[in-house]
Every structure is written in structure tokens, then in C-alpha cells.
UniProtKB/TrEMBL annotation:
Belongs to the complex I subunit 6 family. This is NADH-quinone oxidoreductase subunit J. Its EC number is 7.1.1.-. The keyword NAD applies. Keywords: Cell membrane, Membrane, NAD, Oxidoreductase, Quinone, Transmembrane, Transmembrane helix. It catalyses: a quinone + NADH + 5 H(+)(in) = a quinol + NAD(+) + 4 H(+)(out). PANTHER family: NADH-UBIQUINONE OXIDOREDUCTASE CHAIN 6 (PTHR33269). It comes from Robertmurraya kyonggiensis. The keyword Transmembrane applies. NDH-1 shuttles electrons from NADH, via FMN and iron-sulfur (Fe-S) centers, to quinones in the respiratory chain. Couples the redox reaction to proton translocation (for every two electrons transferred, four hydrogen ions are translocated across the cytoplasmic membrane), and thus conserves the redox energy in a proton gradient. InterPro entries: NADH_UbQ/plastoQ_OxRdtase_su6, Nuo/plastoQ_OxRdtase_6_NuoJ. GO terms for molecular function: NADH dehydrogenase (ubiquinone) activity; oxidoreductase activity; quinone binding. It is a multi-pass membrane protein. The lineage of its organism: Bacteria, Bacillati, Bacillota, Bacilli, Bacillales.
Amino acid sequence: MTFSGELLAFLCLALVAVIGGVLLLNLTKVVHMVVALVFTFISLAGIYVLLSAEFVAVVQVLIYSGAITIIMLFGIMLTRHNDTSEPKGGALKKIFLFLGVLGFGVAVYIGIYNLDFNPQATTLHENNTEQIGMALYSKYIIPFELTSVLLLVALIGAIILAKNDNKKEADKE
């Protein structure tokens, strides 16, 4: 088995993504968790570049690594946290968790190993940004607009909830 540069780049990016995910689950400080999440997002963007999906990679970096991470940090910093420490799970819980993750990994491996795609001639690498735009604004225009309405409703709901919390705090004082 020969290692090409593309395979080596994929293995490095996949390793960074997995390590970022594991650190996200195991770190105790929330800001450190968000930094681990950023590493995972950026490594996924690198994998998108390897798949010749440059537009999706740029969107991954701009939206997830940038905007979503900043929103998460603002949400963490602006909310009040009552430190009610929960006891850590025992060894039995960790063993069941490990067995569950291992079982999921085996199921995914078996599913991918037995998967058979019929190769079809595609022009995926040519003008993929244009193809995304054409599909998004012709075939998928209704789901695109419904998503924007859903995001607007979520934003209005968050504002209403924040105002209610402010009124409750003002009434307590």
C-alpha cells in the first residue's frame, strides 16, 4: 500500500477532527471546549477541500468556525451559570459508553465496507460552486426560503426569551 500526499493529508485532517471531538467531550472548561470544536470544524473544511468542494470548505470556515463559534462564546459569557457539580460517572458508565462507541464504529465500518456505488460519470470537480448555486436557487428554493424563515422565527424567539428573563430579574430586585 502506497501513501499518496492526498491520503496522508486526509489521515492528518481526520486525526485532528477526531482528537478535537474527543477533547470537546473531555475538557472541563467551556472555552477550551469551543477551541477544540474550532479545530474539528477547520479540519472538516480541509477534508472538504480534499473532496474538491472548495465552496463548502469556505462556508464551513466562515459560518461554523467563525460565526457559530463566536455566537457560542457570547452565549456562554452572557449567561449566568449556577455551578451545581454533578458527580462523575463510575467505571461501569465509562465501560458502557466505550462499548457503545465501539459498537457504533463497527456498525459504520460494516455498512461502509459492504457499500457498493455504481461509478457514474460526473462533472463534480468542474464549477462546483456554480452547480451548488443553480441547484439551490432552482430545485431547492422552497427549502432554502423555509430555512430562512425558521432562522428568523428562532431569532425572534430568542429575543422574546431574553426579554422575559430580564423582566424576571428586574422584578426580583
